[in-house]
Amino acid sequence: MQVSETLNEGLKREIKIVVPKADLQNKLGDKLEDAKQKVQLKGFRPGKVPVSHLRRMYGKSFMAEIVNEIINDTPRSVLADRGEKSATQPEIDMTEDEKEAEKVLSGDADFEFSLKYEIIPAIEIGDFSAIKVTRPVVDVPADEVEEQVKRVAQSAAEYSAKDGKAENGDRVTMDYTGKVDGEAFEGGADTDANLVLGSGQFIPGFEDQLVGAKAGDEKQVKVTFPEDYGAAHLAGKEAVFDVTVKEIASAGEIVIDDETAGKLGLESAERLRELVREQIESQYGSATRQKVKRQLLDALDEQYKIESPSKLVETEFNNIWAQITHDLEQAGKTFEDEETTEDEAREEYMRLAERRVRLGLVLSEIGEKAGVSVSEQELQNAVMNQVRQYPGQEQQIFEFFRSNPDAVANLRAPIFEEKTVDHLLTVVDVTDKTVTKEELLADDEDAPKEAAPAEKKPAAKKKAAPKKKKADSAE
Predict the structure, then answer these.
(1) pLDDT, tens digit, for every residue of 294-303?
(2) Is residue 141 part of a domain?
């Protein structure tokens, strides 16, 4: 096999491969000898079929197998010999002329083809001790914990039927059927459903229209599903719900004590408060994590100005652009509505794509050098997290991941990235700073998005129902 480099510009490489016909004939001879010992043909004893006869019968098909093996094995061996890593699967370029291909399969011509690919640039990992990161932290005030505890305890409140009109805080028991464009939709109906008015449990506008209702009332509730609603076929659609009010009940006084905690499955009010505090601290912790990670990525962005493989940038840009145009279409908006133009937006998101790819490569190299790895258990946990997002469709989602190994592999990247960030936070200079929750939760203007693409989710339909979110919980 003859290997020669025909292009070396920046990250782009092109390698010409020539496999002499003599080598092809030798490989064919080996295959024919192997087949001679195994094949059984009428009129010949086992192992006694002449090679010349096998060549006439199977020569071209065996040579096609040899060509495919060469195409499959050569890119890996060439890259290994050159000490290079390809950013994407190398492109194979070979003759499309039928006569030339026929000569190769007949063993009368050399097999020539080329590999085209972009390499992952060499990244020299330096010292991170000079990177300074400020970690914003919030001290959770006791009154915020108490307010959240009361919301959680609301689910354990005792309700008693009342006469008169429904008010915020009352529980409405009802039957309802929802329709879009006059047609009922899956998940849009229920009987004896309980809804506490003011809880924000149903989509915006639904609960407000039940304030003032009385037992026995029949009402039409008109709402519009949010543009970002989980069921895409309902997002942004107007719906009408035929509602029959069956009972109005008012809540008794909420007392935060051990008895109330027991109704929530907890041993004491103290334990309830502990869980609520942990939940709030976890929410603030997520915001803190994002702030710290952004600072870290910005520092790496300044430190590593490597060239990014154009194919990876193009793929990342196409993913971003598809999401942007989809969001605009769903919202019924244009680039002008966002005070920009399509050309300006393309330029901005191309810069974002290049940043994501570059930082992704940097984090990958840092993680590999630090020995970061993702265990099978962590991947399984990630799959389970995906499954939980589609209640009622667990088996379908499990099957999706079982039959799509690439989908499981896609879950590895964000886990690897987060573990690499954890490693970096042990070696950079981190200073804690106490801030208010408003400061912590405020968005940073003009801040770039995270380095890695968003985790892809399996294509499955979520249950369509008027619920917007679950009631607050201490779990």
Answers:
(1) 999 999 999 9
(2) no
